[in-house]
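Protocol step 4 of 6: structure prediction from sequence.
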Amino acid sequence: MSIEIHTFPNLETDRLVLRKITKDDASNIFSYLSDSEVMKYYGLEPFKTINEALDEISWYQSLEKNHTGLRWGITLKEKGIIIGSCGFHNFVSQHFRTEIGFELSRDYWGKGIAGEALKAIIAYGFQHFGFQRIEALIEPPNLLSQRLVEKQGFMKEGLLRKYEYTRGKFDDLYMYSLLKEDFSKSEL
């Protein structure tokens, strides 16, 4: 499985352009990552300064640089500003798997935007990176994210008890997965 990225892959859907996130996007990212509802299951406290948004962008860039993931900014075609992000992290190349992550400004919830973005990156991951398995780890109370990945064909495999320590507590996480053959069947 190749995870080398020579040119950042911009992706386009009916309504969206998924593109590389730069430091120029910090104020837009700060806008939604300072929202307590958006951050409720993100594993971090809501951002209080623009520097936290810049640190987040640095993390996105390190994923690409270190070949451990790739994060796209979600933009509406007519606006061009970042309203969320989605991507892969924790590439495990010898096992052809990765994890998926996403968040979206609350102003755009319930409009099918996250699903449209996820469908595009999932297809890209299976076709261009050769993933065999894409995982999603989701806290049990996060019903919206569970429904979102289930609509993309992910299956709930089980509960990982006290799997992650974030925001001063241990969290259980559901393990969801989407296999390449399941995705291919659903796309026929």
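Step 5 (inspection) to follow. The radius of gyration is 16 Å.
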